[in-house]
Amino acid sequence: MFLARALGAFIILYAIYSLWMTTRREGSTPPVPPALLRPLASFFSGAVGTLFGAMASIFFAMYLDASGANKQTFRATLSAMLLTLSVARTVGYAAVNELTLDSFILCAAAIPAMGIRTTHGRPDSLRAEPSCVSARRVRSPLSVRRAAIT
């Protein structure tokens, strides 16, 4: 329980840091050097992924943010990373006979909603200003991980 709360607290602190970074002038030096943030994010994505499973995505986002990825690269890389993890987990669950019919039904039920979001989602998000994209990067993990600290 302590680790889940610590992860939730860290996510909130990183959200505050990211929002604060959107108020800084373009081209100003970040207070945490990317050369320090990238290896830390890499380490913690592995450690948190091992302990919590899918909750490591915040560290993937931190790594990509510290790498200076533009929003298209950020989205494509993060999507590819999450897809790779999903496929690897599915293979792992299948290897130990934990994939059940209920799992397939749940996955099949989610596919139409994912397709609608992909094809008819918010096209204005592709034209968003970088500061808005950064704020959305923070809000999405926060809304999903709010349960981690309760």
Structural shape: globular
Percent strand equals under 5%
User: Rg to the nearest angstrom?
Assistant: 17 Å
Helix content bin: over 70%
Number of helices: 6
How would you classify the helix and strand content by structural class? mainly alpha
Question: Could you tell me the mean pLDDT?
Answer: 77
The end-to-end distance, rounded to whole angstroms, is: 10 Å
Biggest sheet architecture: none
- Write the element-wise H/E pattern from the N-terminal end onward: HHHHHH
Low-confidence stretches: 142-150
How many E strands?
0
Number of domains: 1
Features:
disordered C terminus; mainly alpha; 0% strand; 150 residues
Describe this structure in words.
The protein is 74% helix and 0% strand. The chain is globular. The chain contains six helices and no strands. The chain has helices spanning 2-22, 34-52, 57-66, 71-95, 101-120, 130-145. By secondary structure, the protein is an all-alpha fold. It has one domain (2-149). The model is unreliable at 142-150 (pLDDT under 50).
